[in-house]
Amino acid sequence: MNPAQTAITTPQPQPIFLKNYLPPAFLVQQVHLNFLLDSTQTRVISRLELERNPASTQANLPLELDGQNLKIINLQLNGQCLTEADYQLTEQQLILPQVPDSFVLEIEVEIDPLNNTALEGLYQSSGNFCTQCEAEGFRRITFYPDRPDILSKFTTRIEADKSRFPVLLSNGNLIAQGDLDNGKHFAEWQDPFPKPAYLFALVAGNLHAVKDSFTTCSGRQVALELWVEEQNLHKCEHALRSLKAAMQWDEENYGREYDLDIYMIVAVDDFNMGAMENKGLNVFNSACVLAEPKSETDAAFNRVESVVAHEYFHNWSGNRVTCRDWFQLSLKEGFTVLRDQQFSADMNSAAVERIQQVSMLRTAQFAEDAGPTAHPVRPESYIEINNFYTLTIYEKGAEVVRMLSELLGKETFRKGADLYFARFDGQAVTVDDFVACMAEVSGLDLSQFMLWYSQAGTPEVAASGVYNPTEKTYTLTLKQRTPATPGQPVKQPLLIPIKMGLVGAAGVNIPMEVNGEFWSTERVVQLKEAEQSFTFHHLEAEPVPSLLRGFSAPVKLSFDYSREQLAFLMTNDSDGFNRWDAGQRLALLAIQSLVAQQQAGETLELDPALTSAYEKLLKAPVSDPAILAEMLLLPSEAYLAEQYEQVDIDAIHQASEFARTSLAKALYAEFLRLYQDHHSSADWSPEASAVAARRLKNVCLTWLVATEKPEALQLAEQQFKQANNMTDQLAALTCLAHAKDASVGKEALEAFVKQWSQDALVMDSWFSVQASRPYPDALDKVKTLQAHSAFSMKNPNKVRALISAFVNQNRVNFHAKDASGYQFLADKVIELNQLNPQIASRLVIPLTRFKRMDKVRQNLMKIELERIKQEKLSADLFEVIEKALQ
Ligand code: ZN
Predict the structure, then answer these.
(1) Quick check: pTM over 0.95?
(2) Are residues 142 and 37 in the same domain?
(3) Are residues 449 and 494 in the same domain?
(4) Domain assignment present for 824
(5) Would you name the residues annotated as active-site residues?
(6) Distance 207 CA to ligand 1 centre (A)
(7) 307 C-alpha vs ligand 1 centroid, how far in Å?
(8) Tens digits of per-residue pLDDT, 365-417?
């Protein structure tokens, strides 16, 4: 009974449609679970108190319980044993055609956690038991109506061997525990809050806790416990600090107080996603909770802070108020991502946080929106819900809620959130319910706004301006269109909030006057039509428009800026985000002209405007090192690729490399001085200023080694050897390992693995550095590394560290013209299809994005997709491959 094997379903899995939603036929008042834990033969005995749903639209429906890979041991209805004549059993369900209106059902099943490599339901990680039930994992534990609109009160009894599993945890409060015969013990947990099955959790193992406490705004003491394996006890402090900060932040900013007396987090090494918000018992991928300066980078610290906050915020946006069905996934995820973004902005540099979010959104999410799996923030159908935990649901979903907060204003938005939590507490609701609260408190008509939830694709806004010197007017014209996406050929105009200002020659925002209306110096313009014009009056000279400030909408905005205007905005825009974006636009122009030169076979020549803009940045007094570090980064090759209908992978790579080395050579002295100014041998500090200095310094180091000068490489070597923290050590290692001559990094890579072979998380970085090495020798290295003792195809972090890193962070070599990268990926996807369908289906995505490639690559990619299609596919892969080849 291998769960991963039976995850492979019939050849044609069927889609489920939002429009077919029906309220449940039965409700579960109470559920008692009893687990007799065993690696290969766990018994789960459940007792469900069921009754017909008065709100059900049809009478006398059969009881349908979901269940997968479960071996039935015993079934009893109101104490009477059921025989096979009393029920029907399919691959997916247990159906009882004749049941009373109210009854007790007792179900005993057997499951096999040890061989559960899909990591859904109950499984083992490092020998410990843990569960993952979102979205539909509970049905792999027992038969149950596994849908988020059935909320029930859970009690859980766990019985296990005491010496191997001394710690037994579940949701809610511990109500009983004790020793049993045969070296066993038990614990019983009760969760007073009704919840859907996807929020159930159980953990049992040899774990150790770091404990703390938090006093809520109403004075209640909450016990905080972070459970980890013993060797990780020194990596807990940062997560606990982040948790307390998040608890306080949610009280102050959303009026949300924690509701149980205990909040537990467990770190596990084998986890498909980042973390899971189970009620009172979060389960985390260890990569998103453990952090200690010697072994984790500043970026990892930042990730821990935001994921801990994210899962905590779900206690209200997701748990107390949950989703009616999985089409509403962004109701909890989009809103919770926005909340964690707001938190991170308050804890760190707000501008840098925004820059990093937007960079991710407009490379990765825009690419998703332009590919074969594009879907709206609220999808209309799916085959496998696990395929919809996407950047569109999470990140674009967050942007949509952010736009609501921009449109309503901060205070009114807060009123809307308060109303939402008050009105729907304890319920499973929809995106419409959420937006209706926002409409109610603001009086706004948000009907056009709802298109953001139903239309897929990234809207394009083309802006243009005409200055009339005699009239002293400036007319700004905005046009919008959204390209067709699969299944949505025609799009309607959206309501797009465009925050803008007009910057005058002196570098200040000019007060805006439009047809007698006074707008002050900044304004959120509402673009509602396909095309709209605004004429500004009383302008003595042509202003420079600063559009989409703070990235006020998830769109592609174009404006025909001159290089001078961009250089001007880079220093003068009052909006920090747009100063950065002006620099990105300038770099984009320069690299795009290099791409054109490369394609025309000309000698490459870098636009001097970019060099002088960089020189100006480097020579100016450093007011904000964190922002400067971001401004010194060139747009990624992935972002460059996004700018083209036809992507020339090689030309983009050549052009980027040329820009990088030219700038590095031209400005070597400036980069060196900045490096030295921000390099310190002082003790590591978590202060924002120290983080910013490390970031700036390491960005400079990367520029320096781009020249391949021996003295630059020596500097990297020195930093590698002397580093007292992982941020500096890994940055230096990357510089060395990515030097053109592969032998340069050899020694450091060996020293690193020797130092860190016992630390699984650090080993992930060691794999990734090698997989992302931008030279053709990378693939062979990746293949060799698969045999390394620290690598395992069964561990998602390792697959991401080695295989995903090659596929996603090594674009030129993944897209090698000999198809070696494509063939390798297809082989891995086929292997993972058996082991872990969720990971397989995420991994294959880059292979499905062939539409914008040249004909040769398109064919090579399709050949590999066809090869995968020959396999007996899981529903997850079936859906993605099917959409790609349509
Ligand atoms: Zn979430």
Answers:
(1) yes
(2) yes
(3) no
(4) no
(5) 311
(6) 25
(7) 8
(8) 999 999 999 999 999 999 999 999 999 999 999 999 999 999 999 999 999 99
